[in-house]
Amino acid sequence: MGEAERETRRLIEIMARLRDPEGGCPWDLEQDFRSIAPYTIEEAYEVADAIDRQDWEGLQGELGDLLLQAVYHARLAEEAGLFDFAAVARSVADKMIARHPHVFGDVGIRTAEQQTAAWEARKAEERQGRTLDGVALALPALQRAAKLQARAARVGFDWPDAGAVLAKIAEEAREVAEAEGPEAREEEIGDLLFAMANLARHLGVEPETALRRACAKFERRFAAVEDELARRGRSPAQSDLAEMDAIWNELRAAERVSRQGAAES
């Protein structure tokens, strides 16, 4: 048994001990699939965040936390007589072999594009249902929108290019401006966001990642605005929009210069 197998077995045994009705952890014993699911989602985002920040040391820990979630759910399933961790690993291994016949079989695939087409065809065969079946409801809304649109596009229900999507976005923006009442505004803003996700897909951008990075940029810049105001002896509450906006624009300009310098070096 190799080190990876030993440590995986050790982790499985630790989880079994935590869930032991006699001497286990009271908190762990109270949990079920539903209560653990939000932690699973959170850990997946923390993995993505570590990758965005290129925090490779932190990534090791975050991947461990995510692995723990898989072990936790598998333990709950084993206790319920559903399946165990070995079945989970076997299932995904079998699926990877089935979906890569060009690696584990004799199918000839030469390019990434051919592989993507073959992969999607195989998944469609496995689903054997409606086109949009199986897109998880728990996904973040922007990510789910892009997945729904990609599924529909596979059967030809799609805008021809990004230009057509931009025209749709302009139309949706007008409808937001014309909407009256909270329910109508909510619906129209939803349509606008859905169209934005579609544009991201056409441009090869993952919308959830793009928005997450935009949030991080906003946090960074606003913190810099606060720092500059503190240097001037004031807080945001003691400032006004004109002053903060001017500082913001100075920061944006400085970032552009910095990026240009890095690109030229």
Automatic annotation (TrEMBL):
Keyword Hydrolase (UniProt): yes
Primary enzyme class: hydrolase
Residues of the NTP pyrophosphohydrolase MazG-like domain: 31-104, 165-221
Protein origin, superkingdom: Bacteria
Keyword annotations of the record: Hydrolase
GO terms for MF: ATP diphosphatase activity
Gene Ontology BP terms: dATP catabolic process; dGTP catabolic process; dTTP catabolic process; dUTP catabolic process; response to stress; TTP catabolic process; UTP catabolic process
Reaction catalyzed: ATP + H2O = AMP + diphosphate + H(+)
Enzyme Commission code(s) on record: 3.6.1.8
Entry's family note: Belongs to the nucleoside triphosphate pyrophosphohydrolase family.
PANTHER family: NUCLEOSIDE TRIPHOSPHATE PYROPHOSPHOHYDROLASE
Protein's name in the database: Nucleoside triphosphate pyrophosphohydrolase
Lineage per the UniProt record: Bacteria, Pseudomonadati, Pseudomonadota, Alphaproteobacteria, Rhodobacterales
